[in-house]
Amino acid sequence: MKKKHKITMLTLAMTLAAASSLYMSEVPVWAGQGAEESLDPQGDTKNGKCGKNVSYSLDTETGVMVISGTEKMTDYLYSPPDYYFDAGLIKKVIIEKGVTSIGDRAFQGCLSMTDIEIPDSVVSIGMCAFSGCESLTNIKLPAGVSSIEASAFQACRALKELEIPAGVTEIKDGTFSECESLTHITIPESVTSIGETAFYACGKLTDVEITNKDCVIADKTFVIYDEESDTYKPIPGLKIHAPKGSKAEAYAAKNGITFEATQGSSDPQPDPAPDPTPDPSGKENDPSKDPQGGEKQVTDDSGNTFKNKAGQPEEAGTELQDKTLKYTVTSAKTGLAQLTVKECIDEKATTLTIPDEITLNEVTYKVTGFDAKAFKKNKKIKKIVIGANVTSIPKNAFKGYKNLRTIVIKTKKLKAKSVAKGAFKGLGKGVTIKTPKGKKKAYKSLFRKKGLSGKVKVK
Asked: Is CATH 3.40.50 correct for 313-458?
């Protein structure tokens, strides 16, 4: 068996180890199997269930499927969905607001599907959810998505672009393997690891931007199989963009991949711009213009220098700050601007609050997360307040704070897949966690599963 097939099987084996392979082949083929036999002679619409409180309606003439409901879709690990025999007819999927997840293998092998609309209510994408959707060219994931499971987009061969939401903390094994048309992708600051074969056989991938300098990359991540030499080689022409001194730089050097340093925390900061000089003509310089006549960059009281005009979000990856915290912009979409906490500036602070949102240069950014090492400089921290818009908690988020006594959690958006394993590890007796109204029971159970000691009080 050729190595390309071997690694495909390896990826699928890793991601489906816990599942039955009753209807799984090396290359998932659902589309077109028995589609004609399943057509309803009484009409052009098929209806059915795809979750406890989720249903679908498929127009077999237009190929449009509408999914509606108020909970998560079913995970199809052991048996196919009701619309299995009509998969070849599906061209477009519209998921209505209220559905919270896309189930494992929900659309696997829908070869004719070219478009899907996903609402803001969806927070997770299941294992192999779109695997083998060869006609899908682009997909827009809502900002609230915090979990993308293994092989979710494997063999989406026409997929050209995709923006990974800021709340995602891990890119798992095989997630984008064999996405042959993918040319560039940005890995947000929230991602701390990229799994084995995550970008295997993405032959057209030329640029990968990794914003987290501590992001760990598995060995066979950005590789292709070379038949002539019977070995795995780095993707030809690939360039990794990341902060100087990052783990991504070390990975690139080890594997012979071109590396380009981006502005990061380890880079020297540019000298401040000189004060404007008087106009030789005797006229005052226009304060809204720079010496070359363009728009002048504005600096605020917190030391932020804005490249964009007031009301326009800064680019993703831009670092901003207020009096206490430093942030990284993760979404620059107008009206949906978001950022995560990178570190605390005030090293003497004993109470640290992650705000619900901040407004800078007339732009309101929702604060959706924080880095695992965001507060490591604050050795005397006693209290941490987590804002209402935070969607994820990283691994070892609270480990090592000997003086920490109180954690106030305002957010109601935490899910099992968005809280990393070991997130609450290291907290001991004397610590109290305060939860939002109505979330105590659910959060207590969730946090225990994520490493919280039984000695810690949950209120």
From this structure: no
